[in-house]
Amino acid sequence: MSGRTDFDADIARTLIDRKRTTPGATLPILHDLMEQFGYIDDAAVPLIADALNISRAEALGVISFYHDFRRSPVNGRVLKLCRAESCQAMGCEDLVAHLAVQHGVSVDGDDESSSLHVETVYCLGNCALSPAALLDGQPIGRLDRDRLDAIVAAARSKTQ
Amino acid sequence: MSARVFVPADSSALSVGADAVAAAILAEASRRSLDIEIVRTGSRGLFWLEPLIEVETAAGRIGYGPVAPGEAGALFDADFLTGGAHPKALGHVQDIPYLKRQQRLIFARCGVTDPLSLEAYRSHGGLRGLERALSLGPKATIEEILASGLRGRGGAGFPTGVKWRTTAGIDADQKYVVCNADEGDSGTFADRMLMEGDPFLLIEGMAIAALSVGATRGYVYIRSEYPHAFAVFSRAIERARAAGLLGPSVLGSGRAFDLEARLGAGAYICGEETSLLESLEGKRGQIRVKPPLPAISGLFGKPTVVNNVLSFAATPWILEHGAKAYAEYGVGRSLGSQPFQLAGNVRHGGLVELAFGASLRDLVEGFGGGAKTGRPIRAVQVGGPLGAYFPASLLDTRLDYESMATARGMLGHGGIVVFDDTVDMARQARFAFEFCARESCGKCTPCRIGSTRGAETVDKIIAGRDRQENVQLLRDLCEVMTDGSLCALGGLAPLPVLSALDHFSEDFAKAPARAAAE
After folding, report:
1. With contact defined as beta carbons under 8 Å apart, do B269 and B283 qualify?
2. A77-159, superfamily in CATH?
3. Could you tell me whether strands B258-263 and B334-335 are parallel, antiparallel, or unpaired per DSSP bridges?
4. Which of chain A's residues have a Cβ under 8 Å away from the Cβ of B281?
5. CATH class (in words) of the domain with range B425-514
6. How does pLDDT run across A1-52, given as a tens digit for each residue?
7. From A23, which residue of chain B is nearest by alpha-carbon distance?
8. How far, in Å, CA of A22 to CA of A14, rounded?
């Protein structure tokens, strides 16, 4: 997602306040923070806890439960690669191996500075056109090695 | 009058370049000074033909697909605006056998109309179900749903009318209807297609439910893996509100109902209804022990109807045409239609809505055309990651709730994933445990611990260590998980494992050298 900004406690507070009275506000607030900053900064945790009148442990418990909520920033592009059964049947594991062997990109690796983050997801609902992926939110169907090579090259050239 | 060209904006179509095709057609038209209108629709669900564009001609809608952006010029040269001949021409879209052979009740409009046009929705038969429900009143509406035999399309198959009757019968200051759109099963995409392609149908179905049970608020919980569906559906809610379909007086009835779309956060378990409710309340998506049932004590402790997208979406048709007409589709206690989803290694993947009772073979061979790789089909998983793997010898199994249960499988949400003969079923069994371990909410021991121990045990079998003992151990573990887990995740994860063991035992007996599994 474009337009991410560095973490700023005042912006975070504004985002949190905007939704604090929404019933079941935790996930909507966390999504707003993700949208703004690309991750949930540790400094946001007490702000969320105070606003929602829950303990910090409870707030952290929610953040850590869901796969979407990242605790540290990423700088590059994010490729969510589906590795569920339908994509397995069409060779997604070959793509995972290709990324590692050809490009030295490890899926679900934790290198913050990497120009391309590849994350495992289980099902994007594009199973008739497996293997499927989402590149910064844009759907890709029938993903193959060539397309993957182009994605890696584009991500690397962008950051250099 | 300008010619109308229909280009899908469904995310599967987008994933193979539908936006670029739309742009290329528009640019080519402008170069030729032709006046055309591009209507973005949902998908017809014939995904191997995407991007599948259609033109409106005097003789009906003619399709072309799969179209590449570079073919725009050639299409104009071939006079495609009047249905001219071209190698990619498909003729009348409704006459394509894949579509013609279906019984589309829920998906009749999907891919035909602009999903965000309420006028188009109404002119194609929309809102008649809700109008009839309003004239029937709550009690008779619920009777109609009961009589239709509609069962929950999320997987469990619980009678929808019974849920509604339970919630309707409770006095409460606040009731809710919640739509489970956390379509997490691999091989399923019907909910996504519907939310992107005909969102007002879901809104109409939820309004019917809400007015029947006395709920004034509703939530649709959409998984975050569906950003496009979330965006389209949120816009549909706004338009429905602006048009008075939602709000203080639904269609001028004086009865209030409003709706909000909520985004999940990447947790498969939130497709379990009580986890989903916890998540909506802002908590970790850990399952609740039942009872109490959500119908009695659900969201924020209030009576709540939780139904799948396809269950809600079936109700407008039932109300419009009557329970009897609906129950004429299907077999035994599996009545009506099921949107099946063909996926994985299959030539013609897509959405196939049929009355219950078709055979698995008809789906994967008749509609699907066999494996995409051209190799023999070896295994077919039905019902998502918790569904059984069927060998080619069981392809004549019927697709209805009872036949699937008899064959020790389940229909689930109607997803069908095809594998060719290169599949290693021991690896698939391991994956079932691995997935369960990753997605377990951690509340109960059989699921939390059992899934990890299961994966380890499969590893030992693959590595050839004490095979007989370990296979026995694996079966014991499956029994414990089936009987002792709190919800369907731990309770059904053994289903794919046992089906792999039962039908593909040879894959667990291979020479261990080649099994340096990760």
Report:
1. no
2. Glutaredoxin (3.40.30.10)
3. unpaired
4. 23-24
5. mainly alpha
6. 445 789 999 999 999 999 999 999 999 999 999 999 999 999 999 999 999 9
7. B281
8. 14
